[in-house]
Write a structure and sequence with these properties.
The chain is mainly α. It has one domain. It is built from five helices and two strands.
Length: 150
């Protein structure tokens, strides 16, 4: 026989599951849009460990560090590395440290602002060097000297 406590527990369990799936879909859509802007394959945002590995790669870390998530205590290390990666990705979208705090506290909102917002990808800062994806500068206005016939 169902008691009110069992029914409430089942309802809360179902609600928790639905909210978890909705949060995962929202996060994957936002990260997918962010990856698209960065020139990365958008489908990588939907694969659970691959999305974190891709963020680590764009942050200048080895993507293999994502394997640390299988060690319970080391999950904190991966979280810190994802936040540092977000800090390194932010300048590529023209944002600063405030967005890093947002990424640390509300990752899905950070990814939504970068993915769905008006920010354009300006370039990556990988391994301490700035890599620009801007088009080549216009050729100089001075015309080249024409060869003279002797």
């Amino acid at each position: 026989m169902n008691t009110p406590d069992a029914s409430l527990a089942a309802l809360l369990g179902l609600l928790s599951f639905v909210l978890s799936v909705a949060l995962y879909v929202w996060t994957a859509l936002a990260v997918s849009a962010m990856f698209r802007k960065m020139g990365e394959e958008p489908w990588k945002a939907w694969v659970p460990f691959l999305n974190t590995a891709t963020l680590l790669k764009w942050g200048g870390f080895s993507p293999w560090l994502v394997l640390l998530t299988f060690i319970p205590v080391a999950q904190i290390v991966v979280y810190v590395l994802v936040v540092v990666s977000a800090h390194r990705i932010n300048p590529g979208f023209g944002y600063g440290t405030g967005m890093t705090v947002l990424a640390a506290l509300l990752f899905v909102v950070w990814a939504s602002i970068l993915g769905f917002g008006p920010a354009r990808w300006l370039g990556a800062r990988a391994a301490g060097r700035r890599v620009s994806v801007a088009p080549d500068p216009a050729p100089s206005a001075a015309p080249a000297a024409a060869p003279t016939a002797a």
